[in-house]
Amino acid sequence: MFIKNYPLSKVTSLGVGGPADLFIKPASAGEVAYTQRFAADNNLPLTIIGYGTNLIIRDGGIRGIVMQIAEPLARAKVEGRVLTAQAGCLLGSLSKLALQHHLSGLEFAVGIPGSLGGAAFMNAGAYGGEIGPLIKRVQFVQNGTVGSWSRDEFHFSYRSSRLQKEQDKTIVTEVELELAPGQKKDIRQKMDAFQSQRKSKQPLEYPSAGSTFKRPPGHYVGPLIEQAGLKGLRIGGAEVSAKHAGFIIKTGEAKARDFLDLIAKIQEIILQEFGVELEPEIRILGED
Ligand SMILES: Cc1cc2nc3c(=O)[nH]c(=O)nc-3n(C[C@H](O)[C@H](O)[C@H](O)COP(=O)(O)OP(=O)(O)OC[C@H]3O[C@@H](n4cnc5c(N)ncnc54)[C@H](O)[C@@H]3O)c2cc1C
């Protein structure tokens, strides 16, 4: 069932962005395929989102259909060392499920707030781990029908995967992850350590969309921005976090435009000062 004029600020961690003309949250791969065919038959653009934790949606919103792959598509099971999960599962819950089954590999994911589908798209990672190498098989919907890729067909690299070249055309519905047997206490210890590292270093008390930029070769983003004296720089309600300069946080009322202007300003200054081009890790969708 489509909802008209749905405010996308409700489904993004930053809480900014205009409306979707039509919004739908499918509950099965069949409904995903149906929606994709419906969009094609009616010549409507189709945009896919997960939990919106890596997104800035522009203030004018998104034309056509926005399909959110989220909690109705969130069943998961473990057989041996293979964890099979629908794309709307939260990464943090899957990390805990792996722990319950004494399986190691997903510890890095415990504090990443997005979906498995979004993580596959972004090849999400942290603390030396990433989702790509764990993937055994990705099930997706393309041209209104269900297909699958093996890990080798998935072509992942740092914060990138084949899905990014096929944005909105290939919709992940389920992923099989191959994990390694481990000791429950070691797995838990790793997860706890990652969580406390996150809490001490990241501005989790404010809305954000995670790291703003990808790590440029040979540099770290946070220190570059800090050295340029940009911590605390603010445009409207968007501010470079004083706790971790790699994050832009929302402080009070903000528009998507504030974030986009601040990103452009940081890019300009870092290029001038250090000759380094910063590429956004955050995905920017919609129209002004
Ligand atoms: C506080 C905080 C900390 C974070 N820490 C990390 C971190 O340590 N490491 C890291 O990598 N990321 C991190 N992130 C970013 C983000 O959580 C991840 O990239 C996450 O995997 C995105 O998932 P999502 O469901 O929110 O996707 P969204 O943000 O909704 O979408 C991201 C992209 O994925 C595509 N997409 C989503 N679902 C699907 C699907 N089912 N099929 C096809 N395409 C899809 C969308 O089209 C979009 O282009 C952090 C974010 C926050 C707010």
Which bin fits the share of residues in helices? 25-40%
Global shape: globular
Question: What value does the average pLDDT take?
Answer: 96
Low-confidence stretches: none
Structural class: alpha+beta
CATH topology group of the largest domain: Uridine Diphospho-n-acetylenolpyruvylglucosamine Reductase, domain 3
CATH architecture of the largest domain: 2-Layer Sandwich
- DSSP summary: helix tally: 8
Strand order of the largest sheet: 6-7-13-11-12
- SSE order in H/E notation? EEHEEEEEHEHEEEEHHEEHEHEEEHE
> Any idea of the CATH class of the largest domain?
Alpha Beta
Distance between the termini: 27 Å
Q: Strand count, sense and closure of the main sheet? A: 5 strands, antiparallel
**Total number of domains:** 3
- Regarding quaternary structure, what we see is single chain
Count of β-strands: 19
- As a whole number of angstroms, the C-alpha radius of gyration is 19 Å
Topology:
Layout: E1 3-7, E2 19-24, H1 29-41, E3 46-49, E4 55-57, E5 62-68, E6 76-79, E7 82-86, H2 91-100, E8 103-104, H3 116-122, E9 125-126, E10 129-130, E11 135-142, E12 145-150, H4 151-154, H5 162-165, E13 170-178, E14 180-181, H6 184-201, E15 208-211, H7 221-227, E16 234-235, E17 238-240, E18 247-250, H8 256-274, E19 283-285
Parallel strand pairs: 2-5, 3-5, 4-19
Antiparallel strand pairs: 1-2, 6-7, 7-13, 8-14, 9-10, 11-12, 11-13, 15-18, 16-17, 17-18
Structure report:
With about 290 residues, the chain is α+β, with helices and mostly antiparallel strands. The protein has 3 domains: about 5-70, Uridine Diphospho-n-acetylenolpyruvylglucosamine Reductase, domain 2; about 75-185, Uridine Diphospho-n-acetylenolpyruvylglucosamine Reductase, domain 3 (2-Layer Sandwich); about 205-285, UDP-N-acetylenolpyruvoylglucosamine reductase, C-terminal domain (Uridine Diphospho-n-acetylenolpyruvylglucosamine Reductase, domain 1, Alpha-Beta Complex), CATH 3.90.78. It is built from 8 helices and 19 strands. It has helices spanning about 30-40, 90-100, 115-120, 150-155, 160-165, 185-200, 220-225, 255-275, and strands at about 5, 20-25, 45-50, 55, 60-70, 75-80, 80-85, 105, 125, 130, 135-140, 145-150, 170-180, 180, 210, 235, 240, 245-250, 285. The strands form 6 sheets. The protein has a 5-stranded antiparallel β-sheet with strand order 6-7-13-11-12. A 4-stranded mixed β-sheet has the order 1-2-5-3, with helices on one face. Strand 17 and strand 18 (about 245-250) form a beta hairpin. The longest helix has 19 residues, at about 255-275. The radius of gyration is 19 Å and the shape is globular. The model has no long low-confidence stretch (mean pLDDT about 95). The site of flavin-adenine dinucleotide (FAD) has 32 residues, from strand 3, helix 3, strand 9, strand 13 and strand 15.
